[in-house]
Amino acid sequence: MTKEIVVNRTHEETRVAVLETGKLSDIFIERRESEKILNNIYKGRVQNIVTGLSSAFVDIGFGKSAYLSKDDIVAAKNEHNIENMLKVGQEIMVQIYKEPINTKGPKVTMDISLPGRLLVYMPFSNNIGVSKQIEDKDEYSRLKNIVKNLKADSDLAGGIIVRTEAEDATEDEIKREIKYLSRLWASIIARFNNAKFGTPIHRDLGVVFQTVRDHFNEDVTLMHIDNPKELKDVAEFVETVSPELKDRIALYEGKQPIFKAYGIEEEIKRLRSNKARLPSGGYLIIQEAESLCAIDVNSGKFTGNNNTQEEVVTMTNVEAANEIARQLRLRNIGGIIVIDFIDMKKEKNRKKVLEEIRNAAKNDKAKIKIWPITKLGLIEMTRERKRESLFSLLGDNCPTCHGLGLVLSKESIFINVCQELEQMKIEKHYGKIKIKLNPEVAQYFNERKARLTELFKKEIEIIAVDAVDREDYNIILE
């Protein structure tokens, strides 16, 4: 699989797109007005301990308190009582692992982790692990032994996880990264001791450098950047972490904006819709809520020519499985996800679709768990969400429908107005009666003006006003 990374940098926003075989697979956006705080480390102060929830709330200098679960507290091994683990007013080091979403504050942990390109260092753990994505048993053992020996030689306290990117890495490369991460941790400890509470003591890499760390490997043929300064900074960073890939970074000098030239701008517009098209003509309907997402698979007009109905349904579901995995990554949808696939009669076809979505989800860096398909054709899954979804980032709730996705029908507004006129007993009013309405609704009322006259035995003037919201109206008695 070939990859390209496309970087668009402006004064207000940085956007990074990852394309796999020419198709958009990931999109990351960082805005100046909404600073990324995920994985940042803060010096916080315990604000409140809630024994019933086995949790605490920590003031880290934000408007909203951070939530700290008992399971995320670093304490003595045999201690289980949260009141013995923490005290109100205690200053502690915490790392954000889930950004604020809607009304919820950030979630934090005291079990710090520092990711590098090849390794993740965990100062408060003793485990040595290797990514499950490294399937070669010999390579798995080789990497584990290298880390185990280097850790013993350096007297480094803490645990280390070997990332997928470390596959085929040399001992010297791993040794260099261990040295870098141990120095980083030492500097964080020093800053924590000298910092005031509520201040960040370590910020994670920006979106571009983070993409280089997590995605820039041998599979990437080109990293195209449209900003000369950003190019210089990235080149210096790559020189340090992956010098052999430095020649794959290039400045984009085309006349069109870089995202438009690559077709990414149009793709982002499509992501704002709740509908996603499938290659065969079918489509997905994606309904996203705060902690639950429902996805409906539809075959559309796809008939599959001479294929049987079962074959057509299975082909559509297989396409949907791949597209769903892609859409979840692009839209950054997390929480509980329920997928309503088109019903398949044969068990082997249901297993085929389940296997397809599991394979398609393997490249997702978020933690995913998928349950077997039910008799109703549903697949239930969970996907880790550490930051707000793309939909939440790009848009606000509609001021008219307030996020419901629908507004009162013109008929419903007509009935509401009639009921209010009846309650006002306008038959006893001898002056003029005017109703101010949104222009679209006013047209509906004008078409039924005779009905109003018949009901109330009075001439009622309908006035169209652009400033009136669609569901609003104003009855004036003169």
Give a quick set of tags describing it.
5-stranded mixed β-sheet, 6-stranded mixed β-sheet, 478 residues, alpha+beta, 32% helix
What can you tell me about this protein's structure?
The protein is of the alpha+beta class and 478 residues long. Helices cover 32% and strands 26% of the residues. The protein is built from 13 helices and 24 strands. A hairpin with a 2-residue loop joins strand 2 (13-20) and strand 3. Helix 2 crosses helix 3 (171-194), helix 4 packs parallel to helix 5 (228-241) and helix 11 (410-423) packs across helix 12 (439-447). It is globular, with a radius of gyration of 29 Å.
Brief digest:
With 478 residues, the chain is an alpha+beta fold. The chain has 13 helices and 24 strands.
List the helices and strands and how they pair.
Layout: E1 3-9, E2 13-20, E3 23-31, E4 41-50, E5 55-59, E6 66-69, H1 82-85, E7 91-98, E8 107-109, E9 114-115, E10 119-122, E11 128-130, H2 137-154, E12 159-162, H3 171-194, E13 200-202, H4 207-215, E14 220-225, H5 228-241, E15 249-251, H6 258-261, H7 264-271, E16 275-277, E17 283-288, E18 292-298, H8 309-331, E19 335-340, H9 347-360, E20 368-370, E21 378-383, H10 390-394, H11 410-423, E22 433-437, H12 439-447, H13 449-456, E23 460-464, E24 473-477
Parallel strand pairs: 1-14, 6-8, 11-12, 14-15, 18-19, 22-23
Antiparallel strand pairs: 1-2, 2-3, 4-5, 4-7, 4-13, 5-6, 7-8, 9-10, 10-12, 16-17, 17-18, 19-21, 20-21, 22-24
Helix pairs in contact: 2-3, 4-5, 8-9, 11-12
Radius of gyration equals 29 Å
Write down the oligomeric state. Answer: single chain
**Count of beta strands:** 24
Counting H and I runs of at least 4 residues, what is the number of helices?
13
Q: Give the DSSP E fraction (strand runs of 2 or more residues).
A: 25-35%
The profile of the biggest β sheet is: 6 strands, mixed
Side by side, the strands of the main sheet go 16-17-18-19-21-20
Q: Tell me, briefly, the overall form.
A: globular
What is the typical, i.e. mean, pLDDT?
Answer: 88
* Helix content bin: 25-40%
